[in-house]
Amino acid sequence: MQVYLDNSATTPVDNGVREAMEPFWQEHFGNPSSPHHLGVEAENALSQCRRFLAQSFGVKPSELFFTSGGTEANNLAILGFGRNQRTPAHIITTSIEHPSVLHPIANLAADYGWQVTKLDVDQQGLIDLDDFAQAIRPETRFISIMLVNNEIGAVQDFSQISNIITAKSQLFNNKIIFHADACQALGVIPINILKHKIDLLSLSGHKIFGPKGTGLLYCSEQVKLKPLVFGGGQENGMRSGTENLPGIIGFTKACQLALQNNNLAMLTKLRERLVSKLKLIPKCYINSTKDCAPHIVNVRFSGIKAEVLIHFLEQKGVYVSMGAACSSKRPSVSHVLQAIGLTKEEAASSIRISLSTKLSDTDIDYAAEVIKTAVDEIRTIYG
Ligand SMILES: Cc1ncc(COP(=O)(O)O)c(C=O)c1O
């Protein structure tokens, strides 16, 4: 039996997504920029995707830019804004952002002279709203906060955050740009671009059963970005390069599927089932609180090295990870787990289990049993 519990790292492409993409490899393969009918057909398909997504998120088609994923969307949002300003200003983010947010911000600081405030989080991975309000200064121009964290699933309070940004923008008579990395939120919790007055929002396709190398940046028409890639002027000049039409078709279909189901309720049930079983294992501590997004359960087993546990589980067909996919192969202490107050030893004994709606109760029961057996065995072997 195989149970894949690393869905926050990536997901397999859904059959419906694969079928939607199929005609765009060989039949409708035109370049959307070509003047003949194959090009027009491709351009129409591209526009249809943009219109559908715009309608789904309640925004304008001209505010959507297809990218190669969440990483590029985050880079375009942050560097595209920062490099477009005449003078450096102040930027606020959190200590638990994805590297594709933290690194471009570090670049703005190092190469362009921006000042950065990185907000700490509490044990649940949440920023303190008073600290956040205090951190906003007259020279603050940009705020980047993820909606759902990719290692522990912490969900920031976007209603309050948005109210604070609006109030401070008014107080300082200065438009503050709000960027949200929502890569782990899509298909799990609602994304309210307009209600939360989000100016820039990043999404990734391969976390929601879409193809890898696909993503989207929403950029409000009020915000001007400097492109990172120059060339033929595709994507309204924001991202040159021939469009990845099969990928965009797949991304759009994956979004449609992710948004139409009540994934939150189903994932919550699966999480509760899993957590209730894990809690029966001695010295098991759940790092993700119950208010976290339901698809991510970060858990630790005292005295057990996560690396060892992961390999034991793999042998029984259960796939989990140590944290963010991009850092799992380079074992270092997770900045997120340290930020929520775990010691290095505790962080090193933590695994991330990430769920999807494709899992059944039987899968969860099998995985929980395998985890229990593995933990028992490792404790017997290593004492
Ligand atoms: C929160 C978050 N942001 C951004 C990304 C990057 O997305 P992509 O893999 O599509 O570049 C990820 C993926 O791991 C993520 O979890």
Describe the structure.
- The chain has 383 residues and is of the alpha/beta class.
- The chain has 2 domains: 3-11 and 262-382, Aspartate Aminotransferase, domain 1 (Alpha-Beta Complex), CATH 3.90.1150; 15-260, Type I PLP-dependent aspartate aminotransferase-like (Major domain) (Aspartate Aminotransferase, domain 2), CATH 3.40.640.
- It contains 14 helices and 12 strands.
- The chain has helices at residues 15-21, 23-26, 37-57, 70-82, 99-112, 129-135, 158-172, 245-260, 263-278, 306-315, 325-328, 335-339, 344-348, 361-382; strands at 3-4, 64-67, 90-94, 115-119, 140-144, 177-181, 200-204, 215-219, 284-286, 296-301, 318-319, 350-354.
- The strands form 3 sheets. A 7-stranded mixed β-sheet has the order 2-8-7-6-5-3-4, with helices on both faces.
- β5 (140-144), α7 (158-172) and β6 (177-181) form a beta-alpha-beta unit.
- The longest helix has 22 residues, at 361-382.
- The radius of gyration is 21 Å and the shape is globular.
- The relative contact order is 0.16.
- The mean pLDDT is 96.
- Bound molecules: pyridoxal-5'-phosphate.
- Pyridoxal-5'-phosphate (PLP) binds next to α4.
